[in-house]
Amino acid sequence: MSLGARRCLGLVALLAGLLAADAGVTSPYRRKLEATADMPLDADVFRVPPGYNAPQQVHITLGDQDGTAMIVSWVTPNELGNSTVMYGGAPDKLELRAEGVHTRYDYFNYTSGFIHHCFLKNLKHRTKYYYAMGFGHTVRTFWFTTPPKPGPDVPYKFGLIGDLGQTFDSNITLSHYEENGGDAVLFVGDLSYADNHPLHDNNRWDTWGRFAERSVAYQPWIWTAGNHELDFAPELGETAPFKPFTHRYPTPHRAAGSTEPFWYSVRMASAHVIVLASYSAYGKYTPQWAWLQDELARVDRKVTPWLIVLMHSPWYNSNSYHYMEGETMRVQFERWLVDARADLVLAGHVHSYERSHRVSNVAYDIINGKSTPARDAAAPVYVTIGDGGNIEGIADNFTQPQPSYSAFREASFGHATLEIKNRTHAYYAWHRNQDGAKVVADGVWLTNRYWLPTQDDTN
Ligand SMILES: *[C@@H]1O[C@H](CO)[C@@H](O)[C@H](O)[C@H]1NC(C)=O
Ligand SMILES: *[C@@H]1O[C@H](CO)[C@@H](O)[C@H](O)[C@H]1NC(C)=O
Ligand SMILES: *[C@@H]1O[C@H](CO)[C@@H](O)[C@H](O)[C@H]1NC(C)=O
Ligand SMILES: *[C@@H]1O[C@H](CO)[C@@H](O)[C@H](O)[C@H]1NC(C)=O
Ligand SMILES: *[C@@H]1O[C@H](CO)[C@@H](O)[C@H](O)[C@H]1NC(C)=O
Ligand SMILES: [Fe+2]
Question: Using CA positions, which residue lies closest to atom 1 of ligand 3?
């Protein structure tokens, strides 16, 4: 579709949104509809670190369920080098060591560098560690702070980012998140968009890794698998789904009792975070279905009052892009999340922003006609945050009128933050890219569904 046609449709959508007398807000803010181009290969953010065989694309994620382990990953380009990580409380006192493992993969005619994964365990909570790798060639040193011990009133600040890609807009999103200063990122899928390049050019996985390093080497990002992680390309002879993603981005799924890296859970401070897989089977009796049933029974809201669920494809989405793609998973799992009194469900996939009221749609039984989402104080808030700024551009065609479940929606790039204050209160804020990091374009105090289950906080 041409930009002119998009702009025209956008205007029609805007007018219809303003005329609709519904409760929700379709923001009148109009983003400039420039093309969203990937940053060129020689962009500053893709620069290869200097030094022979220097570790690059350094990234960390939690290594266990409670934040006393960290998985450190990086790539060496020239030769295997050394997989050891040395770490400790000061940059000149790296007294602890962990031996890593390495892997490589081929994708059509691309061969990856040496991908190292090193597991640091028995870490202390809420402690700053310096860590270094690349011994024998070029040593690089980074640091992270482990999350605090899980507990009901432990404050924590999450960044919420989705569908980031590697455009100039992606860079603005990441910069704004850095200015907002979160402790960890809940990432709802679609990392590099390498698959939008010819032959799924896996060099774009490498550039993405170098681009994101400035944040993800210093704080854990919790990964969700999106459709752009599939890299399923039988026409290229690539028939093993998720090949680049699984080689590059491990998750602590075994610690969570999961059998696949795509669904798992972690506990950080006062939050229990469950990651679901939109592109793995979730029908009755499947491994994911069985795992989620057990997992929800393991959640202890007295220890971690905030129950947050991540997935890629949203269950509540009033944008015509990817409309109803999350529906089969919603039908399968929504009842469980309502019964579990989940606080917040985060998804990406749709390249715009939307936040719901507390609604559920669990009354339908095939003959009773009750197939409409209804206000339900026990239900989660649904946020679609697939607006990181990738090469595919903005999804700017909302359905009209705005459905009553939709509280706020806007076709702009941005990111959100979730500041958990204590067991009852958390401040959720969405930051539109055009405003600079400090301006909140949509903000709401969320109250906890376990401690304040009947308080409707999203009106
Ligand atoms: C892979 O194949 C493409 C298309 O034939 C070609 O342009 C590219 O240079 C090849 N890459 C390598 C690493 O051989
Ligand atoms: C890797 O580096 C560590 C730390 O300097 C060193 O102790 C170890 O012997 C090295 N391993 C190899 C195989 O060179
Ligand atoms: C990306 O953002 C950083 C931080 O704001 C900036 O230094 C850098 O020049 C930007 N790079 C590009 C290619 O926009
Ligand atoms: C916009 O969405 C409507 C459905 O709400 C659809 O009928 C229409 O084809 C969409 N337009 C474009 C350009 O995708
Ligand atoms: C929890 O945090 C909120 C927001 O900062 C505050 O108003 C409330 O008093 C706090 N509750 C307790 C029990 O400290
Ligand atoms: Fe997606």
Answer: 171
